[in-house]
Amino acid sequence: MMITSLLPLTPYLLSLIFFLLLLEQISYLTKKRAAPGPPLVLPFLGNAISLVRNPTRFWDCQSALAKSSSLGFSSNYVIGKFILFIRDTHLSHKIFSNVRPDAFTLVGHPFGKKLFGDHNLIYMTGQEHKDLRRHIAPSFTPKALSTYTALQQIIILHHLQNWLRLSSQAQPDPITLRFLVRDMNLETSQTVFVGPYLVPAACERFKFDYNFFNIGLMKLPIDLPGTAFRNARLAVSRLVETLSICAEQSKARMEIANAKPTCLIDFWMHETVQELRNAAQAGSLEPVVISEVEIGAHLFDFLFVAQDASTSSLLWAVTLLDSHPEVLAKVRDEVSEIWSLESDSLITAEQLSRMKYTYAVGREVVRYRAPATMVPHIAAVDFPLTETYTIPKGTIVFPSAYESCFQGFTDPERFDPDRFSDERQEDRIYKRNYLAFGAGAHQCVGQRYALNHLVLFIAMFCTLIDFKRHRTEGCDDIKFVPTICPKDDCKVFLSQRCTRFPSLSLP
To answer: Which residues are part of a known binding site for heme?
Structure first.
C-alpha cells in the first residue's frame, strides 16, 4: 500500500538523485579545473575501488597524469573527497613548509584521525609541536642511539639465526622475508622504545593488535562491528593503553636516584623528571607535563613509522643487494675491515660511523625505494599552489616523496650508492629532492635511528649470511602494504656464510 502511494513521487525522487549526482560531478570538475585527472568519476566512491584493489597501479596512473602536463600534479576523487597528487619537488616543499592551522594539516593517512586518535604527534602544530620535539630530542642523542644499537644488534643476530633454521627446513623452497622482517622490527621497536616495561604476554598481544592495525590501514573506512577498519581502530586504542602503562612505569623508575636510561622512553622520562626537579629546586612554576595517554599515543606514532618504514627498507636492501653483486662485495669488504666476528663484540658507534660505504648503501636504498611514498595533508583553506591553481579547502593533498627522490639526482633510475660519497656529495647537492624523511617542521625526528638500524642490518646480514633471491617475473615490482615492498614479499634462499656466529651481549 505504502509502495503504491509513493509511485507518483518516483519521477521526483529520480530527478533529485540525478540532480545531486550532477552537482557532485560539477563540484569535482570545478575543483579539478585544468589539472590532469579523470574527466568523470563514479558517484561518491569515485576511484576508491581501484585504489583499494591495486594501489600501485592507481598511484602510477596519478604519476603518469602529473608527468603529462607542466603543472607537476594531478587530481582524482575518492569517497567524496577531492585529492591532489603532487609530483613536483618544489610544490611538495610548499606543502611541507605550510603545515599550520591556516594552511595544511598533516594527516599521515586519509582517515588517520579515526585510526590514530587526536593525541598524535603528526596532528600537532605551532609551539605545542615544537615543545614536544624538544622533549623528544634527548631520546635521539648520540648517547641514546649508542644504547639502541647494542639492543638492535642482539635482536638482529637472534632473528638471522632463526631465519637460517627456517630456510634449512624449507629446502628446496625459498622462505618469505616480509613477515619475518616485520616480526624482527616489531621486537626491535618494542625493546628499543619501551624496553623492560613490556612483559612477554603483552608482547604477544601487541603483535596481534599491530597486525589488526596494519590490515585496517589498507581497507575502506567502514567503521562497523567486525570490519577491518573497526578492528584496527580498537587495536590502536589497546596499543596506546599498553604504551601508556609503560610510560608510567618508566617515569616511576627514572625518579629513583641514579637510575640509568636503558630504552627510548627512559631517556624521555629522564629528561621530564630532571625538568621537574630543576623547577622545584629553583622554586619556579612546574613545567607542563604530558599525560601518559598522550605519551602512549606519541610512542605509537614512533612505532608505526619505525616498524613499517623500516621493514620496507630492509626488504628492499636485500632485493637490491642481490641484484647488484658489486655493491654487495664492497659492503662485505668494508665491514670485514672494521668489525671482526671473532672478537665476539658488538659493532660500536665509532665502528658504525666508519662504515661510510655501507651508510651510502643505506641512504641509496631509502632514496631508490622511499618507504613512505606519500605524506597526506588536508587543505584547511583555499591555498594558492601556483599562479594558476588554488587548492580548494578540504582537498586531500599527497606530496610524493618517492617521485621527488627520482628528480635532480644524476641518473636517478640507477641504484648507485656512490652518489653519496664524499667526492660526489649528491646528498648535499640535491638535498631538496631527498624527501624520504619528509621536510619542514614534521621532518622525521628519528631518521638517524632509522638509518642506523638499516646499516646495522645490512652489515650483519651480508657478513653472516649468503643469500639468493627466488626470482620470478615481476617479483621486484612495487606493492603497497601500506608502505612499499617487493611484490613477492621478498622470497629468498639463505645459508650460513660465517664459520660461527659471534656471541654478542650487552655491555
So the answer is: 444
